[in-house]
Amino acid sequence: MLEIEGDLRRALTRNEFVPFYQPIVRLDDGSTLGYEALMRWQHPERGLLTPDAFLTVAEDSGCIETIDWQIFEQVFA
């Protein structure tokens, strides 16, 4: 857990968190209504990580709010 926490803090300074856009699709005709931004971590050694690999540690360490803001800034840009 401490290793992941340290990696999370380094990832914040390196902007390693990235949004992935998932389409929101209307079921009856397949048209795209919009997109949902999903958070991923582009870890330099472990590759692309989904939140289940780090979210609990991010919440417990207090990093989650800063990560969220990084994603918000990227999405709004």
Strand content: 25-35%
What ranges have pLDDT less than 50 throughout 5 or more consecutive residues? none
User: Into which percent range does the helicity of residues fall?
Assistant: 40-55%
* Bulk shape: elongated
Total helical elements: 3
Largest sheet, in brief, is: 3 strands, antiparallel
- The count of β-strands is 3
Q: What is the oligomeric state here?
A: single chain
The rounded distance between the terminal residues' Cα atoms is: 32 Å
Structural class per helix/strand content? alpha+beta
State the order of secondary-structure elements, H for helix, E for strand.
Answer: HEEEHH
Averaged pLDDT, please?
Answer: 95
Report the radius of gyration as a whole number of Å.
14 Å
Strand order of the largest sheet: 1-2-3
Tell me about this structure.
- This protein has 77 residues and is of the alpha+beta class.
- The protein has 3 helices and 3 strands, in the order H-E-E-E-H-H.
- It has helices spanning 2-14, 55-61, 64-76, and strands at residues 17-25, 32-43, 47-49.
- A 3-stranded antiparallel beta sheet has the order 1-2-3.
- The protein starts with a helix and ends with a helix.
- The model has no long low-confidence stretch (mean pLDDT 95).
Describe the structure concisely for a colleague.
This protein has 77 residues and is α+β, with helices and mostly antiparallel strands. The chain contains three helices and three strands; from the N terminus they run H-E-E-E-H-H.
